[in-house]
Amino acid sequence: MKNAERDRIDEKLAKNNLCYVLVTCDESTVDGNMQVRMSSQGDTALASLLLQGALEIIEDKDQEDGPVVNSNKVVSLEQ
Predict the structure, then answer these.
(1) 26 in a domain, yes or no?
(2) How far is CA 2 from the centre of its chain?
């Protein structure tokens, strides 16, 4: 994800949400390294709860469906 695009998403999230956490990653390099970025805004305790809740959802899905290998979901931020 390009920095300008990420900045636009951060700006949109900040306008429309009390709190948010955005985690992104680039494709892995030949040696297996991956650039992971996280940004957040709002109360840190609430951001922590968001992450914990998201982890529970991912773990539940993983148990139901097996490992998620290539699941691409696009959520429009346009309103």
Answers:
(1) yes
(2) 15
Please give the C-alpha separations between residue 23 and each of 11, 29, 37, 63, 66, in angstroms, as whole numbers: 15, 18, 6, 22, 22
From 6, 36, 10, select the one nearest 21 (Cα to Cα).
10
Phi, psi (deg, nearest 5) at residue 64: -75, -45
Q: Which amino acid is at 62?
A: D
Q: Are 50 and 43 contacting, i.e. CB atoms less than 8 angstroms apart? A: no
Domains contained in the chain, number: 1
Is residue 72 pLDDT above 60, yes or no?
Answer: no
pTM reported for the whole predicted model: 0.66
